[in-house]
Amino acid sequence: MRIEPIRAAGGRPAHIRHDDDLISAKGVSVVMAKQLVLQNIDLAIPKGSFVSLIGPSGCGKSTLLKVLAGLVHPTSGGVSIAGLSPVEAARKRMIGLVFQDANLLPWKNAVDNASMLLGIADKSLSRAELRARGQEMLELVGLGDSAHKRPNELSGGMRQRVAIARALALDPAVLLMDEPFGALDAITRDQMGQSLLEIWQRTGKTIVLVTHSIDEAIHLSRHVHVLGIKPGRITESLDIGLPYPRDLSVTEDPEFVRLVVQLRTMLRASHQPGGAS
């Protein structure tokens, strides 16, 4: 299958790489079962940035996130994380992953779930050291008082906080998140988004978030990349100039409302095969 290059609307490159970019994807295409899932993705994400990927169902957002994580290998093109391949970066504990399902071990309490991946990655740490790190991360996500609770004693939002703590326990440079709040009710989702924003501001991690929520993308992100369908590719990129720190009151700002309208227009175009024109 020949993979043709594609450029974002207006004929400009989807994103231009700069020296301070932590994540770089160049010409990434993915073919699965003879189907072109992603086509010529060019993506550059600066260190310490908060970036959202948004687009129609089936546009390849989650596949792109897995490519960045080293879980899916591109058919063509390449990805680097701080100059390393994603697989090498993962081995060096530079990548943390959070999915929609928290996937906590039901027989472990919150602090042991939070430190589980670190224990697998570093066999030299004692149980006391692991639990101390787990407790520290639970404090960071606002669950310090729930360290002894098992998953069945936690709400959906609390379980996702433990999943975030588990990823952060590795002290990764990059946090990749695939619709982590998608299963939560609207109010809990707002609260979790605000909590994530505060964690990002405190830790300086580079975060890439897959979401279907326009409001969430604009509330949290510095940059939003819109993916189109058939094949999946970046059709538009939107810089969010709202100042940080942000709280939920930003949703009442006229500039926020303008950005919502702009992003919604981009998304409507992305639902058409062939993308925005």
Give structural notes.
With 277 residues, this protein is α/β, with parallel strands linked by helices. The chain is 34% helix and 22% strand. The chain has helices spanning 61-69, 86-91, 110-114, 116-121, 127-140, 156-168, 186-203, 214-220, 254-270, and strands spanning 21-32, 35-46, 50-54, 76-81, 95-98, 174-178, 206-210, 223-228, 233-239. α8 packs across α9 (254-270). The two termini are 24 Å apart.
Using brief descriptors, characterize the structure shown.
277 residues, three-stranded antiparallel β-sheet, 9 strands, 22% strand
What order do the helices and strands come in, and which of them pair?
Blueprint: E1 21-32, E2 35-46, E3 50-54, H1 61-69, E4 76-81, H2 86-91, E5 95-98, H3 110-114, H4 116-121, H5 127-140, H6 156-168, E6 174-178, H7 186-203, E7 206-210, H8 214-220, E8 223-228, E9 233-239, H9 254-270
Parallel strand pairs: 3-7, 3-8, 5-6, 6-7
Antiparallel strand pairs: 1-2, 1-4, 8-9
Helix pairs in contact: 5-6, 8-9
